[in-house]
């Protein structure tokens, strides 16, 4: 059946800026739709968020001054289940970025076959500029503003850039107090003391190392023989560095927003983590040389892991990448133009919707445990995570080989197809 749209309303920004996260997300979807042979109506349905909200978030500062921030929640798709996606605190957050991140969540949940749609939220704030009690007030106000849209069966939040397990505890408490009883399943990535899951804190990074290992194994290589550079040393990057080092890889460079450090013999991970805990940055770590974020992307390593922000591998930087593998810890680190250059230079890109899906996989486990009020052991979670990541990698890699397409196109085809099938089987109401 052919679907056509006759409405003149343009539901998403008609032409997001070239290289922006939304334009990257749109061109990735277009490539998958092209391979799948879907018509324009279905394409537009898949490209368009189901619901969006833009809220004002006023904050009374500790000194009594009032500040106002913009907050967003975008629910991209519900065809396979409730919306699922992180909450980001970053000054660059805007509606188009949140739309892109929500869309990627939909495909990601499809790739690893979770019964979720995709959603994402954000507040345009730099959390480093605010006290803990100010961040608590921002979180509680944002949560109450978007309250009609979220819930354990409708849209479930998790941490993302600039937020953490404490943020999730405040969201859960605000939601629960307003509903009159405790509802742990409204968020994932919360502290263990309020129903969090063992293994959630390191899940994204553990999943990333599983798919990196699977890609290397497929090529007859071993993790113990490779060097790794990681951009971003937050929740994803720092745990990935620690797990890579623990499994025998040589982590030769890491960076954060303040700069980077490099040691070609391998950075001493325990001491580096102590340095970051003491100073708040990797910069200044002894036994290393400084390296800029741009230089890090061009280091002659085996594996490059962008684990910070979107769009860092673009038409200016991607051509300089000397890594053989780019494993995307961040969401959307490679623009469409960057992808073309990486492919031209023979770099294998393990795409974000697969490489960083470990976080949402264990979020799903946390949600299942909260709904059952029955808790699994850390080993059970680690085993189930590994199984799901390795089998998702095998599905994606198998399809890429059979259809002679990139791992990104194959992952998008799998994720998009699962969503489109659910949409078509459910039919269009009314
Ligand atoms: P985080 O806030 O814990 O850490 C972000 C890190 O990136 C910090 O080290 C920060 O200094 C660094 N950074 C920020 N701007 C930078 C810049 N311009 N250049 C270099 N470094 C910069 O965030 P996180 O949770 O680790 O998320 C990182 C990325 O991974 C994001 O794209 C996020 O969407 C994605 N991701 C996170 C999860 C998760 O479970 N936390 C899951 C999937 C994907």
Task: Lay out the secondary structure.
Blueprint: H1 21-36, H2 40-47, E1 51-60, E2 66-77, E3 83-89, H3 95-111, E4 118-123, H4 132-146, E5 155-159, H5 165-179, H6 203-218, E6 227-231, H7 235-246, E7 250-256, E8 259-262, H8 269-279, E9 289-291, H9 293-297, E10 303-306, E11 325-327, H10 336-344, E12 348-350, H11 352-355, H12 358-372, H13 378-403, H14 407-426
Parallel strand pairs: 3-4, 3-5, 6-7, 6-10, 10-11, 11-12
Antiparallel strand pairs: 1-2, 2-4, 7-8, 8-9
This protein binds nicotinamide-adenine-dinucleotide (NAD).
Can you characterise this structure?
This protein is α/β, with parallel strands linked by helices. Among the domains are: about 140 residues, Rossmann fold (3-Layer(aba) Sandwich); about 150 residues, NAD(P)-binding Rossmann-like Domain (Rossmann fold), CATH 3.40.50. About 0% of the residues have low confidence. Nicotinamide-adenine-dinucleotide binds next to helix 7 and strand 7. The site of nicotinamide-adenine-dinucleotide has 24 residues, from helix 7 and strand 7.
